[in-house]
Amino acid sequence: MAVGLAMDAFAVSLGIGTTRVVCAPRSIFRLSFHFGFFQFMMPILGWLAGGRLAGFISDLAHWVALGLLTLVGARMIRSGLDSDATAFGCDPSRGKMLSTLSIATSIDAFAVGLSLAMLRVDILYPSAIIGIVASTLSLIGLLIGHRLGIMFGKRMEIVGGLILIGIGVRIVMSHVQLI
After folding, report:
1. Which long-range CB contacts under 8 A does 82-90 form with residues at least 24 apart?
2. What is the pTM of this model?
C-alpha cells in the first residue's frame, strides 16, 4: 500500500527533476521531506475524520488532484516547448507550489486513512511507513529526473508535464465509475 501511494509522489518528483530547477541538496531534501510528511499526515487526518467526511471528500478529492496536477503539468509542457520559458517561476520546493504539489500527491493517502478508520486499524505505524516510503521514492525520482533532464534537455520537461497530467487522469479514473 505504501509503495502504491508513493508512486504519485515519485512520478511528480521525476517530472520536477527533469526541469533541473531543484538541484541543490537542501531543495531536494525539502521537496522529498514534504512529500513524505504529507503522505504521513494525510492518512492520520483521514483516520481522524472517520466516516463523517468520507462521502464529501471522496466525491471531490480526485477532481482537485486532477486540477492541480494538470496546472503544473501544463506549465512544464509550455516551458519545454518554449526555449526561453521556465516551468516554475520559483523554486517548487518552496511556498505555495510545494504545498500544492504535496497536497495533490497525497490526497489518496487521506482516503486510505478514512478506510483504515472504518476498519478500526491503528494509524500511526502504517502512516509512518507510508511517509518514509514516499519520501524515499520522491528523493529517487528527483535524482533520476535530474539525470534525465541533463541527458535529454527541455524535451524531458514535456514528458514530465505529460506524466503529471497522466497521474491526474489516473487518479480520476480510479475513483470514477465509467459506464
Report:
1. 83/154, 86/19, 86/21, 87/19, 87/21, 87/157, 87/160, 87/161, 88/19, 88/21
2. 0.70
